[in-house]
Specification:
CATH topology: Immunoglobulin-like
Strand content: 35-45%
CATH architecture: Sandwich
Amino acid sequence: MIVVGLFQACGGRPEGEAGTIRGRLCYPSEYIPAMTVYARDVNTGDTVTVEVPENTAQYELAVPGEATYHVFAWTVDGLGGSYSRFVTCGLNVECTDHSLIPVAVGAGQAVGGVDVCDFYGGPVPEP
């Protein structure tokens, strides 16, 4: 498992203890391509990233606590995926909602099950 976080912000790191977002990576293929996973603060736009090598099935991001994030990824080939309602619906053809799910992270809190598996449709934020 890769455990890296890079905080990119205009206003500096918020006060408080960091939290963690973790989950699985899925891709509609026999392998998982190298990709960058993003956690973007829904209020400020501040973004934390982690580079994930090919065939890595899990990720973990250290993020500033006390914030809410949208989690998404872009492959090295420019294909976007996300943690969306389609994922929690079971990745089923009957599921039509591809909206991103906000992920709230408290100070020092680890939030798991944030699976970036929706590479099937819906808008994915730009890196």
